[in-house]
Write a structure and sequence with these properties.
By secondary structure, the protein is mainly β. The protein contains two helices and eleven strands. A hairpin with a 5-residue loop joins strand 1 and strand 2. Pfam families: Cupin_2.
Length: about 180
């Protein structure tokens, strides 16, 4: 996956400041086919960067604070990969916590989770199912979008091919 970042030169003109692979990308060894990428992030109140400096090395949580953002691209293998006898859920949890701090701690054993964010999700490639806490399942395909409003949910890849999704997470205040 290629990431192109723009910024400004010393004269204030727009320029490409970075063009290459997503530097913060991980292919999980505990679950082949699971790939997590963090192309960009912003913190609350942060001004637009003129230099296009990469903020991702400084990100300590994939869960943005209210007003912050995270741009995450996930490739999710079929659910059947987790039923394989060689799958080690403890090792996967360890990799999740290292790769996705802030969100990994919110994951329930069945993959359900709730985040205090508004998420814009786009299915880039494949078919996946959005499952909500009442058991309702909504099938999604390439090009479909989901607006996730801080609801408890999980992603189910019931097919036999990996699915790639892009998410923009926007930190929000939780309504009590």
């Amino acid at each position: 996956m290629r990431r192109v970042v723009t910024g400004h030169d010393e004269h204030g003109r727009s320029v490409v400041v970075s063009d290459g692979p997503v530097p913060r990308s991980r292919e999980f060894t505990s679950l082949p086919g699971w790939v997590s990428r963090l192309p960009w992030a912003t913190e609350p109140g942060e001004p637009v960067g003129r230099t296009g400096e990469d903020p991702t090395p400084k990100v300590t949580s994939l869960l943005p604070a209210p007003g912050g953002t995270r741009f995450v691209v996930l490739t999710i293998p079929p659910d059947s990969a987790m039923a394989d006898p060689s799958f080690d859920p403890v090792a996967f949890d360890r990799e999740q916590r290292a790769d996705s701090p802030g969100i990994a701690e919110l994951m329930e054993p069945d993959g359900m989770h709730t985040t205090p964010t508004v998420d814009y999700g786009i299915v880039l490639h494949g078919d996946i199912v959005l499952e909500l806490d009442d058991g309702h399942r909504t099938p999604l395909s390439t090009g479909d979008i989901v607006i996730q409003n801080g609801t408890r949910h999980s992603w189910r890849n019931l097919g036999d091919q990996p699915v790639t999704m892009a998410f923009v997470l926007i930190g929000a205040e939780r309504e009590d």
